[in-house]
């Protein structure tokens, strides 16, 4: 919500809304995005944090298959 929302606002502000963002893109762009991607294209691939004893933990999440498919469907302009 918070950081994801900030990313969506900032990318839209510079004229590059995230794919399938029905709130911060135009209706035409949103509909066009739906042709190749069925959901918001925001993904955190890495998370690092320190626990209460100061030990650093790191987790990775590969790009889900549906989002990989979205990338494969993109065409250069």
From TrEMBL:
GO terms under biological process: enzyme-directed rRNA pseudouridine synthesis
InterPro entries per UniProt: PsdUridine_synth_cat_dom_sf, RluA_PseudoU_synthase
Entry superkingdom: Eukaryota
Molecular function via GO: pseudouridine synthase activity; RNA binding
Similarity comment: Belongs to the pseudouridine synthase RluA family.
Protein name: Pseudouridine synthase
Organism taxonomic ancestry: Eukaryota, Sar, Alveolata, Dinophyceae, Suessiales
